[in-house]
Amino acid sequence: MVDAGAPAVLLPAEEAGVDLSSMTDNLAGQLPTLTAARASAGLIMGLRKPEDPPQNAVPKVGVVAPAGDYTAADGTTIPAGSHDVRVRMLSMLAPHPAIGLTSAVAVALAASQPSSVVANAAGQPSTAGTPRILRIGTPAGVVTAEMISDVNGIVSEVALHRAARHIATADIDVAPAAELSA
After folding, report:
1. Please, which residues have CB within 8 angstroms of residue 123's CB and are 6 or more apart in sequence?
2. Cis (ω within 30 of 0) for the bond into 59?
3. β-strand partners of 71
4. Which one of 68, 88, 166, 181 is most buried, counting C-beta atoms within 10 A?
5. Does the pLDDT at position 165 exceed 70?
């Protein structure tokens, strides 16, 4: 569990029964496990009282796996060398089409915590006092986060780098210009 950007609970994908070699599955079979984790984490994190029903939005819930080739939502293959960790988040009760920025901040901060699910999956230790880059493989491609920590390893800043993606291709027919008459 991490409370940065947004409160989040991050589970090892393998333990949750999620195969992140493809980011195209709707996760319907794993939804009960993921929502139960969200409900428990909500209590532990003080986001709800035991008598309150679990929320579908907070804490964020996601699954994490080490880097590996995977199929993105658009069908392209994302090679293992392009990212440090694979992450799939739920948005309400459905898989997020990419990763929310607040969830990316939570994942980045979790990576800086020794022995966390994300740190174990990323497999690269943080060095106190130096910037660290974490490349997060998501259904929409790779999102890059940079963490800045002090000499004690306390993260003071997380910056996200993302690229604009192609949204549409369009042809526009424009009527010929009318001749100007004086």
Report:
1. 66, 84
2. yes
3. 22, 77
4. 88
5. no
